[in-house]
Amino acid sequence: xxxxxxxxxxxxxxxxxxxxxxxxxxxxxxxxxxxxxxxxxxxxxxxxxxxxxxxxxxxxxxxxxxxxxxxxxxxxxxxxxxxxxxxxxxxxxxxxxxxxxxxxxxxxxxxxxxxxxxxxxxxxxxxxxxxxxxxxxxxxxxxxxxxxxxxxxxxxxxxxxxxxxxxxxxxxxxxxxxxxxxxxxxxxxxxxxxxxxxxxxxxxxxxxxxxxxxxxxxxxxxxxxxxxxxxxxxxxxxxxxxxxxxxxxxxxxxxxxxxxxxxxxxxxxxxxxxxxxxxxxxxxxxxxxxxxxxxxxxxxxxxxxxxxxxxxxxxxxxxxxxxxxxxxxxxxxxxxxxxxxxxxx
Amino acid sequence: xxxxxxxxxxxxxxxxxxxxxxxxxxxxxxxxxxxxxxxxxxxxxxxxxxxxxxxxxxxxxxxxxxxxxxxxxxxxxx
Lengths: 345, 78
Hints:
Chain A: It is a multi-pass membrane protein. The structure holds 2 protein chains of 2 kinds. Chain A is mainly alpha-helical.
């Protein structure tokens, strides 16, 4: 009995490993595959608006989805080693700056959903995690994540992905550090400090490796099931713009000669609420049509990192001055990123 | 048996509550399923990622939507 269970577990692992080369073969043949459909199957005229729109869509959609499945699976396994409870323990009583750096990095790997931002905030503050360190976590967690990373690698290449990740981390670290230095604790709603959190001895991170593979597969089902529609919609909009919008169309509005483009795109980005999955395919087309990298990065960070719904949720635990400080500091950080990259490139 | 679903009312929390009620009905046991939406109460269980499942005042799961068969397992273990 025990032997057959072990065998079954082994089989699962072998299946998972066998799928990797299949994935690879699919991935490297996507261009041929989409060309074959467009040119040989449908016999569409090369270079026409419609043809290039369809080619873009048929190539990009499976490409991004394949990348997504692989990386979400890997991150799902990685995340099964972390939990908010563990992260809180690691951050409790940490000095500022070192704490801010740790918090921002842990923000990437700790499982986080914006609907549990409040219990997480309360749990952190109550356990003695400094306010600024808590903010570093809360800024990094939604902004720098695996979905943003995959899409950036897939659509812009790894250099832009690394730049986005590093600058996102730096903003989270410095903004949290600054909030800590400014001693804004008095602008946390008073009831927060009266909350007594209990101790739960539940440790979800102590599981066997085959369980972790299961967790990885469940994460794929959960996340890809939820965001595939945004990706398809985002790529579709991107494809239409790729085929129909003239080159350099965005150059005047979002090009680097227009200095006001950076603050303007941040302001437009705040009330827009989208996750990385929806916005990145659109941004990739903005760049293709003449928008500059700095302006596009700023727009993307503003949409993903500063959102109105999140601010409304935080209103429950933060007083207005602290919310304004949070939006102001993060917004300023994004502004700097935008200007710096417009200047360099 | 007292089962509590902790969650501020997001979609995942509602899904977990429904799954829990189904699990209880399928097991045909005498259990009361309640939903806790008050943040202070949720935190008193030491839970930081919602939704969470509490059976007889003990946290058995947090941070995900468990399937009906998983919930059944938790109930039978308690």
